[in-house]
TrEMBL record:
ATP binds at residues 28-33. GO terms for molecular function: ATP binding; tRNA(Ile)-lysidine synthase activity. The keyword Iron does not apply. Keywords: ATP-binding, Cytoplasm, Ligase, Nucleotide-binding, tRNA processing. SMART domains: TilS_C. It is an enzyme of class 6 (ligase). Belongs to the tRNA(Ile)-lysidine synthase family. NCBIfam families: lysidine_TilS_C (TIGR02433), lysidine_TilS_N (TIGR02432). This is tRNA(Ile)-lysidine synthase. GO terms for biological process: tRNA modification. Residues 379-453 form the Lysidine-tRNA(Ile) synthetase C-terminal domain. It comes from Rhodothermus profundi. Its main location: cytoplasm. It is found in: Cytoplasm.
Length: 466
């Protein structure tokens, strides 16, 4: 059977593409991606080629790009090119890992811009065998041994699919077809650099295994990955889904501690990894991080674990996962009468009233009244900090803000979002919770200041009633 027909049947069997579908094709200029582009073109699909020039290999990088441009011009194929100085993106990280991240982000961006829902890449059967061995040596566990799937989503909460139409073909057949059909390609000399683990597996380990165990060893390794994928889908995945529903509250991004502790330890580890993947995308999904989260489960409420993309809090009954987001507004500023102060999380206003309202309790902690005679403008507004103290309304002594929030049963995950309104070094109002005793409205008060906090999202009922 001719190679294009084998690819067509694999695409049909695995439901990778619809006939005549537009598809973004990652094209490096190497033999695998050039074959994929040509095969999809001959099968009647509408490829949009996407090439990334990392500018790592000087003239060779430019020659790769020139080859892809020439081929696309010759066959009148649309081409999108990204030219990136990868060294400025690496910052000490693995060049290969950064290149992969940049590459797939570019493919995704092109697909979304073009209104295309599928990206095709040229991994073949030998790549699959290499990936299984690489993950085995990394200690990646069961899911690492699944290696690469023929079809998956390009990322979490992403509508774009990633497909691998050549995944059942051996490298030798891909190269033989390219030679027979006169398909041009270029060799990337870095693929032979043994300092890269994948290159060492390709150049040293797989040939050794083939000599000792037979020439079809890559085929058998790829078959093992396919079997594991089938077992995973039929058994492990449904069990993971059931256990996730038992321990996770997706509305609050929390794992219930009692439910989590009731799971076998191996499942505790896997559910923590699931939470990291879903709620803190980009966070390291490594054994070291899992161990740190397990220790957090045994720590005192209030303890936290800071990760590159967010924070995990240990509350009384749950682990809270919060993704770090870039604030649209500042978290500090100066407050003056009738000039709303827009902050991260809400807006604070101060209104001067010439008479004292009949009722000072409006039924919401988001409003507080202070004696205007004791206020010196402007007031400072900021997040509370460790060591902050205030004299809460009705008390003669001072109390730490941290202790006050604990007494009010404010969830640990919300405490660092709380603001304080200050006059010099004295706290007037723990916003949404307590006014300070020195600033209360007295019988002798003539004018008052109405402080009003309007959060972007309503506080939970539990918090509002604290």
């Amino acid at each position: 059977m001719l190679l294009p027909e084998r690819v067509r049947r694999f695409i049909q069997t695995r439901a990778l593409l619809q006939p005549g579908q537009r598809v973004v094709v990652g094209v490096s200029g190497g033999v695998d991606s050039m074959v994929l582009l040509e095969v999809l073109r001959r099968l009647g699909y509408q490829p949009v080629a996407a090439h990334v020039n990392y500018r790592l290999r000087g003239a060779d990088s430019e020659a790769d790009e020139a080859l892809v441009r020439q081929f696309c011009r010759q066959h009148r194929l649309p081409l999108r090119v990204a030219r990136i100085d990868l060294k400025t993106h690496a910052h000490g990280r693995s060049v290969q890992a950064v290149a992969r991240s940049v590459r797939y982000a570019f493919f995704k961006r092109i697909a979304q811009k073009e209104g295309i829902d599928t990206v095709a890449v040229a991994h073949h059967r030998d790549d699959q065998a290499e990936t299984l061995l690489l993950n085995l040596m990394r200690g990646s566990g069961l899911e690492g041994l699944l290696a690469m799937r023929p079809k998956r989503k390009l990322g979490p909460r992403c509508a774009v699919w990633l497909v691998r139409p050549l995944l059942e073909l051996p490298r030798a057949e891909v190269e033989a077809w390219a030679q027979a059909e006169g398909i041009p390609w270029r060799e990337d000399v870095s693929n032979a650099n043994l300092q890269y683990r994948r290159a060492w597996i390709r150049q040293e380990l797989l040939p050794l295994l083939a000599r000792r165990l037979g020439p079809d060893v890559a085929e058998r390794l790829a078959h093992t990955a396919a079997l594991l994928q089938a077992y995973y889908d039929a058994t492990f995945a449904p069990d993971l889904h059931r256990r996730w529903q038992e321990v996770a509250d997706v509305s609050t991004c929390t794992l219930g501690l009692d439910a989590l502790r009731a799971q076998p330890v191996v499942w505790q580890h896997r559910l923590i990894l699931e939470a990291l993947q879903r709620w803190l995308p980009g966070a390291p999904r490594r054994r070291k991080v899992v161990v740190q989260v397990m220790r957090l489960m045994q720590a005192q409420p209030g303890k936290r674990l800071e990760l590159p993309t967010g924070t995990i809090w240990r509350d009384r009954n749950a682990l809270h996962f919060r993704l770090r987001q870039t604030a649209r507004h500042p978290d500090r500023g100066l407050l003056e009468p009738d000039r709303p102060l827009v902050l991260a999380g809400g807006t604070l206003t101060a209104t001067l009233l010439d008479t004292v309202p009949e009722r000072l309790d409006e039924g919401t902690p988001l409003v507080a009244y202070a004696d205007a005679a004791r206020i010196r403008w402007p007031l400072q507004v900021r997040r509370w900090e460790p060591g902050d103290r205030m004299q809460p309304l009705g008390m003669t002594g001072h109390k730490k803000i941290s202790d006050l929030l604990t007494d009010l049963k404010v969830p640990v995950s919300q405490r660092d979002q709380c603001y304080v309104v200050c006059q010099d070094d004295e706290i007037i109002w723990l916003v949404g919770y307590r006014l300070a005793e020195p600033f209360r409205v007295r019988s002798t008060t003539r004018r008052v200041v109405k402080l009003h906090w309007q959060p972007e999202a309503p506080l939970s009922k539990k918090v509002c009633n604290a």
